[in-house]
Amino acid sequence: xxxETLLLFVPACFALNMAFGPxxxxxxxxxxxxxxxxxxxxxxxxxxxxxxxxxVAAVGMGALLMASQIGFTISKLLGAAYLVWLxxxxxxxxxxxxxxxxxxxxxxxxxxxxxxxxxxxAIGNPKAILVFTAFFPQFVVPGNYWGSFLTLGAIFLxxxxxxxxxxxxxxxxxxxxxxxxxxxxxxxxxxxSTMIFFGALLALAKRPTV
Length: 210
Known about the structure:
Layout lengths: L2 H16 L3 H13 L1 H7 L1 H15 L2 H7 L1 H24 L11 H20 L2 H10 L9 H29 L7 H24 L6
């Protein structure tokens, strides 16, 4: 892939990775409650979802979703419903502090739950695959379609890890805020309300015309 193409793609791509959205909000929340390590491990679910979306976009299904009003509507409403449900769950969760030194078994259970959340939030957002469909083709080399698409996808996922780490670290800096029940309650309220807001935005999103 030409160097000049990469010099254009990387900064534009990183801007997309760093854009604040539902998954990055999850990284902040998990980082604040459980630390950077668990947030990074949980984000494997998001990376798996994005990898699937990139593969789908590569074989042309992204264009099909973009062309299908019904498919787009069903996908976005399912994603929006999950975000709202997750937000309501956060709002209603009790302001109880986790015990120090979580047991290994409990830690694994939490990880499975967070992996599932990251995956479902990412895979339930049709705007993500539309980004891959509309953004990646601008940088694909026609004579090396599969090779260049694979390279772009790998770069996107690598930069996503950087973004995840940044948001998780920012969340960990907020850990002191949630060391008491009041701080935890406000953290849940802010996270839950923001998640519901993202769900509402997704439900109102219109299918791109270009």
